[in-house]
Fold this protein.
Amino acid sequence: MTERKVINKYYPPDFDPSKLPRLKLSKNRQFNVRIMAPCNMKCNTCGEYIYKGKKFNSRQETVDGETYIGLRIYRFYIKCPRCMSEITFKTNLVEMDYDLENGATRNFQAVRLAEMEADRQEEAKLEEEKSNPMIALERRTEDSRREMDKLEQLEELRDLNMRQATVDHDEVIRLALEKEVQEAIQQQRNQDEEDEAFVR
């Protein structure tokens, strides 16, 4: 009886792999892949809302003539689950997101808009520093002042640790015992005074 899960296959002695016929595949052929919707969108044909994360069987292809720093950009074709019209979107590597091309419109996303605005403000700030040397100088002086403050705090902590490291434990125990004895004597005096006041 033959083995069901074959690990090694038999190759005859006269086998020549160079004689195998080569598959002639097109350079930009499409693959069937299972993907999730990258964002909330609305179908332009029927008005169906497609939420982010809905799974689709899609066709994937490489976009001709478009790259970003040498990386390929992919286009995906999905079908609306209600009207079966085609929706296409492609990867946007600049913003690390996806761009809807046709068939649907993207729903408004406040979080994405806020992130883009924060990035824009940061870029404007850096550009202003590059163009205005006084602002760059102020920022450098502020950074150096902050660094000096941190160094001073670090020195203070080191001094404190050094003082605590050179503590004489016997002296600490003696002082604690003396304090306890003084408290006991004071308590005895207070008790005696209360007794005398009670007797009178």
User: Anything to note?
Assistant: The radius of gyration is 39 Å. Residues 12 and 181 are 101 Å apart (CA to CA). The longest strand covers residues 55-68.
